[in-house]
């Protein structure tokens, strides 16, 4: 069957949400988006205009200016890891974005991963979490086989905090292992060396296929000051490891150019030599098309109170091309929505949690809350995940989950086993998977639906995401359970004891609510990026194109032989 039975999905907004509610939701979201924009801008400023001026005085560009000149004109970059180290102090200093910029950028029509030192922040030093952030970007490139461009201007570790970034499994040395793994997988790596590249900064470019150095750049194991102290030799770092040495003598670099602009033009030319994107081929003649229902409406669909509901199918309708979708097994496990749509003209699988109240198939006439994983829904998602793996279809997980069902019946129905099956499927999939925390990401449900511990290529949070084991009030009850009666009321009769327990529960709830802040998750790399809801469609277009760009490393089947068609036929829901 070559034709995928895509059908219109969704309704005009005023058919399911009144104007007043839409306006209220949107006003709340715009307030949060304003905070996000301000914080993004602060990160982009690095250490501020004074430090940018110092860079310019050296006749160099900043890391962000280099990215701007490298990318295709008129295209946007998609930054990941913007808020790493957000709110964290190192003495009196901050390290915006951990001093390194990692982005998806289009160069000559090809998606690339660009890793650039922010040379306005301690001369591009590596801070705590800088290595992990670089490694995370390298992993994204490896998983998608995207070319990597390193824009290196790094004075090595920020030494006062070296104990937090040098040792350990993800310490700075792991960057070089990732360089090697990318090379072994045949992923193109191109490095531009623009200034100080000391110690680890000097090692970072070396395994790249092409290394370009400007006249003001140098790569050294140890800088001039250290050599003077150790060997009493008075030399400049350029004398030790400048382009004269590494292009002319050692062979550690390939080309020397006069300045930043020349280096970036040469890197662009190298990217142009690579095979072109396979995206037009995999579109199979389908043109990219905007959703029929506008993505900007997403800002007004989500209530500011996470306990209130919204229709999941209306979210999907505002993400897929033409608002066309093929939902599989809609009558089974209705708390979960699975199916296929096109994004940027390319087939993508979707898994989403429904919200509200649904019928309980285990008890005729009964109802139960959605947003929870039950047996039938878990089985449906596991089968869909395995089928997408077999068919080579990338998967987007739209999470808004409160966790697994619990209780006597849940255990008798074997939810532990069904959950293990889903976890196994998602742990062994090779197709690219991308996770979006729309709102709640709680408990083992967060794990089972491809949360970050299960290594999606990218995990996004929205400004209303809440990532935790459980909600603050629930956790406070669990923590103080021995002090509560059967109705979860404080059992103590002594007023002082009651006040103590009440204060403890209140403080615990407040702390957990603070821990669920998406900026805290992003600061400690528990999520890759925070995005406004109205940007989701653009991000999914990037994910789709990046998933299909490279060829020869995974099986992408034509729809005629999809396993999904067989499963749908056997279930009786094959479509028209």
Describe what you observe in this structure:
The termini are close together. Helices cover 39% and strands 18% of the residues. Strands 1, 10, 11, 12, 15, 16, 17, 18 and 19 form a 9-stranded mixed β-sheet that branches. It is α/β, with parallel strands linked by helices. It folds into 3 domains: 45-276, 2-enoyl-CoA Hydratase, Chain A, domain 1 (Alpha-Beta Complex); 284-465 and 527-570, 2-enoyl-CoA Hydratase, Chain A, domain 1; 470-516. The protein is globular, with a radius of gyration of 26 Å. α4 packs parallel to α5 (173-184) and α18 (472-479) crosses α19. The chain contains 22 helices and 19 strands. β5 (148-154), α5 (173-184) and β6 form a beta-alpha-beta unit.
The average pLDDT value, as a whole number, equals 90
Proportion of β residues?
15-25%
**CATH C-level of the largest domain:** Alpha Beta
| Count of the domains | 3
Query: Any idea what the CATH superfamily of the largest domain is called?
Result: 2-enoyl-CoA Hydratase, Chain A, domain 1
Radius of gyration computed on alpha carbons: 26 Å
- Taking pLDDT < 50 over at least 5 consecutive residues as the criterion, the unreliable ranges are none
CATH architecture of the largest domain: Alpha-Beta Complex
């Amino acid at each position: 069957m070559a034709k995928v039975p895509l059908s219109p999905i969704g309704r005009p907004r005023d058919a399911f949400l009144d104007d007043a509610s839409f306006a209220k939701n949107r006003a709340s979201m715009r307030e949060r988006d304003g905070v996000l924009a301000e914080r993004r801008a602060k990160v982009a400023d690095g250490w501020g205009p004074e430090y940018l001026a110092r860079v310019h005085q050296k006749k160099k560009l900043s890391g962000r200016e280099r990215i701007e000149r490298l990318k295709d004109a008129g295209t946007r970059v998609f930054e990941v890891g913007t808020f790493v180290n957000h709110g964290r102090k190192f003495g009196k200093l901050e390290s915006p974005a951990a001093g390194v910029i990692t982005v998806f950028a289009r160069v000559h029509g090809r998606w690339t991963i660009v890793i650039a030192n922010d040379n306005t922040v301690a001369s591009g030093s590596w801070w705590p979490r800088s290595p992990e952030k670089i490694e995370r970007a390298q992993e994204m490139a490896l998983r998608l086989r995207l070319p990597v461009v390193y824009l290196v201007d790094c004075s090595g570790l920020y030494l006062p905090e070296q104990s937090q970034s040098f040792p350990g499994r993800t310490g700075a040395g792991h960057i070089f292992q990732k360089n090697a793994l990318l090379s072994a997988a045949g992923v193109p790596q191109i490095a531009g060396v623009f200034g100080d590249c000391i110690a680890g900064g000097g090692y970072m470019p070396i395994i790249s296929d092409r290394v370009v150095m400007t006249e003001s750049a140098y790569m050294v194991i140890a800088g001039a000051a250290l050599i003077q102290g150790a060997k009493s030799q008075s030399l400049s770092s350029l004398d030790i490891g400048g382009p004269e040495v590494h292009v002319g003598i050692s062979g550690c670099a390939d080309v020397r150019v006069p300045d930043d602009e020349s280096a970036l033009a040469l890197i662009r030319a190298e990217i142009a030599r690579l095979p072109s994107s396979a995206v037009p081929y995999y579109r199979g003649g389908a043109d990219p098309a905007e959703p029929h229902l506008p993505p900007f409406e997403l800002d007004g669909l989500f209530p500011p109170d996470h306990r209130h509901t919204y229709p999941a199918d209306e979210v999907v309708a505002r993400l897929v091309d033409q608002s066309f979708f093929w939902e599989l097994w809609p009558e089974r496990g209705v708390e979960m929505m699975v199916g296929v749509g096109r994004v940027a003209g390319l087939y993508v699988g979707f898994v989403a949690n429904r919200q509200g109240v649904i019928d309980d198939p285990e008890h005729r006439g009964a109802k139960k809350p959605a947003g929870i994983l039950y047996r039938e829904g878990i089985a449906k998602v596991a089968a869909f995940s395995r089928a997408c793996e077999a068919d080579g279809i990338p998967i987007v997980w739209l999470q808004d989950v409160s966790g697994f069902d619990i209780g006597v019946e849940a255990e008798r129905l074997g939810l532990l086993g069904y959950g293990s099956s889903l976890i196994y499927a998602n742990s062994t999939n090779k197709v690219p998977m991308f996770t979006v925390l729309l709102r709640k990401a709680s408990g083992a449900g967060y794990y089972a639906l491809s949360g970050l511990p299960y290594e999606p290529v990218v995990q996004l949070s929205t400004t209303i995401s809440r990532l935790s084991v459980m909600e603050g009030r629930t956790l406070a009850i669990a923590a103080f359970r021995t002090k509560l009666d059967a109705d979860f009321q404080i059992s103590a009769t002594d007023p002082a004891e009651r006040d103590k327990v009440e204060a403890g529960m209140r403080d615990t709830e407040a702390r957990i609510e603070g821990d669920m802040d998406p900026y805290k998750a992003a600061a400690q790399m528990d999520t890759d990026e925070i995005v406004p809801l109205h940007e989701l469609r653009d991000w999914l277009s990037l994910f789709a194109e990046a998933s299909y760009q490279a060829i020869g490393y995974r099986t992408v089947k034509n729809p005629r032989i999809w396993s999904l068609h067989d499963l749908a036929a056997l279930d009786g829901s094959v479509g028209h």
